[in-house]
Amino acid sequence: MAVRRAADPVKTRAAVEAVAHWLRDEHAEAPPRPQLAEAVRATARTLAAVAPGASVEVRVPPFVAVQCVDGPRHTRGNPPNIVETDPRTWLLLATGLCTLDDAAAAGAIALSGSRAREISAALPIVALPE
Description:
Distance between the termini: 39 Å
Radius of gyration: 14 Å
Order of helices and strands: HHEEEHHE
Number of strands: 4
């Protein structure tokens, strides 16, 4: 089994700042895949650390899936509460450049289950000024 790294606030901020230009300007060239992956994984792991639990699964394919939010734990099959989005939308949410409601209204995020929106209480993870 792969070893999961704990969230490191300094590394998380650095990873986000490395892709910040792309988040602020959708027409900017996308960051290299390893940089993007690091920012997505670091922010998702931080979410799991800030909102520990296993009642909501946050999926950002192809990079990461984490469980978070205290409450009933799911152990088999698909979890009842799922948040799934693309890497850019996730990072916009994680940095406060987009709200969960705005992402949902734009169709950029899939929310299923009655508790999926509870992740918004832990956002932003690394605030970036606009």
